[in-house]
Structure prediction request, 175 residues.
Amino acid sequence: MDRRKSLKILGAAGVGIAGLVLADWKWQIVDHLTHNGFFSFKEEQLIAAIADTFIPEGLPPKTPSPEARPIGALSTGTDKFLIKLFEKCYEKEDQELIKSQLALLDGKGFLSVDQKEREKILLDLGRSDKEEEKKFFNLMRSQTIFGFTTVKEVMADYRGYKVAPGYYHGCVDVA
Prediction:
């Protein structure tokens, strides 16, 4: 086969593959910008702020190691867990409750206030006479704690969990 012809075929194949990769990359960016998720971008920010209010950054590791660092709900991805959990695992009426309560929190300016004021707003929801507000508070609190305490960083660095706690030592002298 002619060397020039082979180089043209290889070049065309490379350009075609690069075009496909760039097209896929472009659609991923467009999808991210248009945000086609169940929750709006503002609602996702509110969920992240709630998770950060319940478990702020700064929990020190119990077993110090070079890679261990202070952690919180946002650094462990608990907010992303909550978003997927509410979107995929909850019934329609619970999803509507979450969306309506998030809209109320947005109306109170939850994202624009400091940590102490966020805590006060959430505690007021927990003490409220309205059943929806209490249910929302308990749901967010329990699922945030569940999502946070089951991640690898908390289990290994804070609680000292080991996958295989007992080790096998083969040739050991018996004393």
Q: What stands out?
A: DSSP finds seven helices and no strands in the chain. The mean pLDDT is 84. The radius of gyration is 25 Å.
